[in-house]
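INTERNAL AUDIT FORM
Audit reference: QA-55
Scope: verify that the stored structure record matches its stored sequence.
Auditor: D.O.
Record contents follow.
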Amino acid sequence: MRCPFCRSVNDKVVNSRTCQDGDSIRRRRECLDCGRRFTTFEYIEPSELHVIKSSGERQTFDRRKIKRAFGALAKNVP
């Protein structure tokens, strides 16, 4: 993390806590070069799931496709 004041990469985390929404972390940092404090927020970045087909093609995972396939299978089961 770079200090927004002096652009140094030397800092330490002074305080860390979860935000009210629970989806982010608030960190209070102190720059070891200039001594100033600043706040950073860290968020979880959702990643897309991909399916690798037998041909090697990558497709974005589609939950509806799975539901349709299970629905078709269920029709054939007595």
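Auditor finding: record pair retrieved intact. The chain has a mean pLDDT of 91.
Action required: none
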